[in-house]
Amino acid sequence: MSVQIGNIELGEFPLLLAPMEDVSDPPFRYVCKQNGADMMYTEFISSEGLIRDAAKSRQKLDIFEYERPIGIQIFGSDIEHMREATEIASQVNPDLIDINYGCPVKNVACRGAGASLLQDIDKMVAMTKAVVEATHLPVTVKTRLGWDDNTKNVYEVAERLQDVGIKALTIHGRTRSQMYKGFADWTLIREIKKNPGIKIPIFGNGDIDSPQKAAAWRMEYGVDGMMIGRAAIGYPWIFREIKHFFNTGEFLEKPTIAERVDVCRTHLEKSIEWKGPKTGVFEMRRHYSNYFKGIDHFKEYRMKLVTASTFEEINEILFEVADNYSAEMA
Ligand SMILES: Cc1cc2nc3c(=O)[nH]c(=O)nc-3n(C[C@H](O)[C@H](O)[C@H](O)COP(=O)(O)O)c2cc1C
């Protein structure tokens, strides 16, 4: 059965690219979309930043037609400001607005935004209602199991947020105090799926990093789809690999070195196109080691890649990488 968020049809068991600050920008989203991500989100955007018209927040509103369906994710601690930010974000016409109630990092959660709303569900509900009322678009939420081990309140959160009109909920199977440590536990996510009162799609998130795990957890937890974050960094093929495994029960061949080089180059091109030559080259540096993870003696090439300063230089090095490794990877 096809999963639906408002009027957005996502097909059966969609795979979503997780919003990731400093990662899921348009260049990265481009390569994830090419490789099968069914829905994507922007990096989180500060409601305060949007209202102040801060350049960084504004830039994150850039979305492209080929990315659809795409959601803009916002966060904040002030209900009125979240309402205003929703209006601003809606003007660029994304497919949906997503609210971040999951971010655990101090300068977000300790300023009353992100996961900290898990400590004040009444406020979270009021904020969500304000966002839903401020836009004609579907509103979704991304959150965690709860603040800490003693307050895993996401079951109640799911019911109450559905009541005020959210159209889908993504749950990262960790608490705020876990940050990114330990393992994601999806048990409570299954409980929510079993709640007969819950009608909206529930997406599981946390630690999906292989087709086998995706297939096993799909069966075990009964979610409507999955959101994938870290496993897609430097490996956007994860989406198509999981889909292929679902459809055939067989593993897709891993990308060849030539494919890795191609996708890495596309990522760089898009990065330059969107950010300009200087920032585009600079911000791409964090990605090279991810694209070529597991390749013997890559260190030397990595050094070259992160010190080169123009597309032409980097492209030369990428050709060398392809030449050098293709024989041994074949
Ligand atoms: C570098 C990084 C940045 C992130 N930024 C965001 C963000 O902007 N908004 C958000 O909701 N979650 C953010 N997250 C959390 C991810 O969306 C996701 O919930 C988490 O990584 C668990 O999924 P995974 O195990 O598939 O990575 C971020 C995670 C990472 C690693």
Ions, cofactors and other ligands present here are: flavin mononucleotide
Give, in order, the helices and strands. Answer: EEEHEEHHEHEHHEHEHEHEHHHHHH
Largest sheet features: 9 strands, parallel
Helix content: 40-55%
- Rg over alpha carbons: 20 Å
Number of helices: 15
- Stated plainly, the CATH topology of the largest domain is called TIM Barrel
CATH-derived architecture of the largest domain: Alpha-Beta Barrel
Question: Terminal Cα separation, in Å?
Answer: 39 Å
Count the strands? 11
Percentage of β-strand residues: 5-15%
Outline, from the CA principal axes? globular
Instruction: Name the CATH superfamily classification of the largest domain.
Output: Aldolase class I
* Structural class based on helices, strands and sheet pairing: alpha/beta
List the domain count as a whole number. Answer: 2
Q: What do the pLDDT scores average to? A: 96
**Poorly predicted regions:** none
What is the top-level CATH class of the largest domain? Alpha Beta
